[in-house]
Amino acid sequence: MEENLTLKNNKQELKDGSSLGADTSNGSSANWYIVGVYSGTEYSARNQINEKVRLKSMSHLIEEILIPTEKVVEISGNKKVEKVKICMPGYIFIKMHLNDDLWHVIKGVPRVTGFIGSQTASVVSQEEIDRIMNHSQKSYDNHKPQCTFKIGDYVNVIDGPFASFGGFIEAIENNQLKISITVFGRQTPVTLTTSEVELG
Predict the structure, then answer these.
(1) Which string of DSSP letters, residue by residue, matches 24-54?
(2) Per residue in 163-175, pLDDT tens?
(3) Which end of the chain offers a freer environment for a tag, N or C, measured as fewer CB atoms within 10 Å?
(4) Is pTM beyond 0.70 here?
């Protein structure tokens, strides 16, 4: 997902004089930038950027390309399936020494919609990148089920005071299910979380 490349010196200014980041001629570090891409093409856009800069002999200007992901568990039928999803569809994060030539190369990649910024490209702080990556890591450490329950499904209660009962889903709201279960011969409406039931 990430590319680690050797850095060399370059200037960080557009031909019109607009600043794109710190000048690396004095050894300063690369900066993070957000690049917009068409949603669903994040990986192919990353690969095309890598290929374009390689062909232009500019790979030394790019340090990392990040596509933050998160792990989720989707429940479909009676099966739990782990999936990896992109946290921020439509965006990739590039740590690079951005100059005029590199800016135009990346902008010219077919799946790229442009740099995120007020005019040309705005630098993103390392703190913001760390926050995004911490969110991504937490999903791997403690991912939560995302269920594909729908109204009318029959479910069995597997946790809580109504464990071993079953009923039909009548409403779904904010990951909570309103279920009508039979208790002592009577239909009783209860509200349960998705973690307390499984499809029957």
Answers:
(1) GGGTPPPEEEEEEE-TT-HHHHHHHHHHHHH
(2) 888 899 999 887 7
(3) N
(4) no
